[in-house]
Amino acid sequence: MTMQKQHIRIFVAAALMIAVMACNNDINRSASPVELIATNTQNLGRIDLFDTTGCDQSVGTIDMRVIEKNAGAQTGGGPSNTTFNQVRVTRYQVTYVRTDGGKSVPAPFIRSIDTLLAPGGTASSLTNFLIIQSDALTQAPFVALNPINGGKDPDTGLRTVKMDVVVTLFGETLAGTNVSASTRFPLDFCYNCGGCA
């Protein structure tokens, strides 16, 4: 009985090793020939939750572009066909990372977009994107910054909540390979601190 259990364990271990190797080969075969790049220009670094002076502008602009990973490697000496390496960006996800030691963050969310990018082409700008849902401003951690709720973040004891707003873009090549890229907007959220700036 003991010998039979050992054989079963060896068989299971061997099967797991084969499965891991097969997964690694699938990952290598599906590697995208292009890379999605996201950079940003930031307009606002502070969001005032009470005084909306200066808040009537976007937080910034996200520039999206696609580059070929092996642009110099061409076959047959002629130009490569990049039609199937075009990327359709279909959505973005917003998540949050506290940079002040606090733990509470708003819920992440996803929004749909539709942009087609060609490898080596000009960057496409995303300007009308949402960084925070309006109902999140009435919840933790922001609600605690209102003086009637204490005026301080309970995690840090500070009157300002500092976090990075992480925007991740998702898309796929016309050949069906998934690509993604992220960019960050560091922001301070405060209450009656001189408006947005």
Number of domains: 2
Give the total of beta strands.
Answer: 8
Task: Using the CA coordinates, give the radius of gyration.
Answer: 24 Å
> What's the CATH first level of the largest domain?
Mainly Beta
Question: What is the 3D shape?
Answer: elongated
Largest sheet: 5 strands, mixed
What is the CATH architecture descriptor of the largest domain? Answer: Sandwich
**Largest sheet, spatial ordering of strands:** 2-8-7-4-5
Average of per-residue pLDDT values: 85
Instruction: Tell me the span between the first and last alpha carbons.
Output: 74 Å
Question: Helical region count?
Answer: 1
Low-confidence stretches: 7-30, 74-78
Describe what you observe in this structure.
The protein has 197 residues and is mostly beta strands. The chain folds into two domains: 1-30; 32-69 and 82-190, Immunoglobulin-like (Sandwich). The protein has one helix and eight strands; from the N terminus they run H-E-E-E-E-E-E-E-E. It has one helix spanning 2-29; strands at residues 34-42, 46-48, 60-68, 87-98, 109-117, 124-126, 161-173, 178-190. A five-stranded mixed sheet has the order 2-8-7-4-5, with no helix packed on it. A three-stranded antiparallel sheet has the order 1-3-6, with no helix packed on it. Strand 7 and strand 8 form a beta hairpin. The longest helix has 28 residues, at 2-29. Residues 7-30 and 74-78 have low confidence and may be disordered.
Keywords:
Immunoglobulin-like, elongated, mainly beta, five-stranded mixed sheet, 197 residues, 14% helix, 2 domains, single chain
